[in-house]
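Sat 14:20. Reprocessing the chain from the morning session after the first attempt stalled halfway. Input below, unchanged.
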Amino acid sequence: MPLTPQDIYETQQTPEFRLLLRASTALHRRVERVDRMRWIVGIVLAASATLGIFYPDARGLISAVGFAFGLLSTVLWTRIRSGLTKDAAVVQEQFDTKLFGLPWSRMSPPKHSVVYLNRWARRAPEPDARPWYLDVRGIPSPIAEAVCQRENVLWDSDLRKAWVTFCRAAFTALVVGLLIIGLALQLSLWHFLLWIIFPTSSLLGTILSGFYEQTASINDRKKILADIDRHLSGIVLTSPKGVIDALEGELRSWQDDIYRSRIANARVPSWFFRLNRERDERDHGEEAADYRRRWSSA
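Finished this time. Tokens:
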């Protein structure tokens, strides 16, 4: 059957969509500042445990403050960043639904008005000229939209896996370092917990909660990816109308799944994204070229 052409690659680079990208960037930076503060306080409290070596009288206070902040940050920080994360996710949802021509989902909060989008966008620099989504020129709709959703999920999942690996190495190094300190000071188990673990509980809790959140997010994305692949596997340009309509009907459902994954508290720092961006763009660009060879109607 004749398939509908699309202009995703060109449209995403128009001023309207660049505005949404800038607003999204500003909101994500706001969440990052909250996360960064939690990390900084956790590191400072962990480092303060060494003060107990030189000032034994301060050990009780350091342990109490560290443990209390660990409990408080688990509850309070999560609640604060949850609302901020949702604001950023809604902007991303506005970008995707408009670009893919999808209706606004009932499960999503109301769209942000242009007034707020402009205010947020002014806080972020103009993003670089690189498009957000892959070059899917020549691939007809709805295949192109499904491909973009697939690459979004795959890229994000791979990035999170790399971040979990990095954090696991950092966590292992931290625990080994703490054990070495405890052994060097010949601390009993109780004193090791009281003077070393309690002050570092906030930092350890941040890392461990990140493991849990990232792992859950990765598993959610695996399910989305498997469903998209299942539908795309049998698609050819000559597929009957019923098959194409079924694919188009799934786009909104997949977008809902993507939105739910975005409002989760699991995050990867922007510096880690930038560190891996060149490699990821190259690898996903090669996959996009393979998609064009497979499905291009040009």
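The longest helix spans residues 59-100.
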